[in-house]
Specification:
Layout (H helix, E strand, L loop, with lengths): L3 H7 L6 E4 L3 E5 L7 E7 L6 H7 L2 H16 L7 E4 L14 E6 L8
Antiparallel strand pairs: 1-2, 2-3, 3-5, 4-5
The chain binds adenosine monophosphate (AMP) and zinc ion.
Adenosine monophosphate binds next to loops.
Length: 112
């Protein structure tokens, strides 16, 4: 499958890895929108959050466990962090492997 994030998970395209377990992979966003901006994906491909919810809803638990474990290790609990997923054109989705942006490191503005 010609998927950028599957290739990153497989190590075929380089990334700055920040988290990995048997199910979940986390890496720095190449174009950060905050001092801390990382992406978390499940290693098994789905295109977006709708497909994930219909066919692989257990992945949500895996990914959110990974994110919160990493956030605790980074001591982000107190200052806080934001989790965002974009689906489709209006949300600006550009990579069609479900991913969760995690933003932190400054006081974040409200949503558009
Ligand atoms: P989205 O617009 O929600 O689909 O987010 C895709 C994100 O992937 C964007 O924030 C991009 O900056 C990021 N991105 C694209 N290519 C790479 C890459 N090779 N390594 C890390 N992040 C990437
Ligand atoms: Zn993929």
């Amino acid at each position: 499958m010609d998927c950028l994030f599957c290739k990153i998970v497989a190590g075929e395209i380089p990334s700055e890895k920040i988290f990995e377990n048997d199910k979940v992979f986390g890496f720095k966003d190449i174009s950060p929108m905050a001092p801390i901006h990382v992406l978390f994906v499940h290693k098994e491909h789905t295109a977006n959050i709708s497909e994930l919810s219909e066919t692989q809803s257990g992945q949500l638990q895996d990914v959110f466990k990974g994110i919160t474990q990493w956030a605790q290790e980074q001591n982000l609990d107190e200052g806080g962090f934001r989790i965002v997923t974009n689906q489709g054109v209006d949300a600006g989705q550009t990579v069609f492997h479900t991913h969760f942006h995690v933003l932190a490191g400054k006081k974040l503005g409200r949503f558009g």
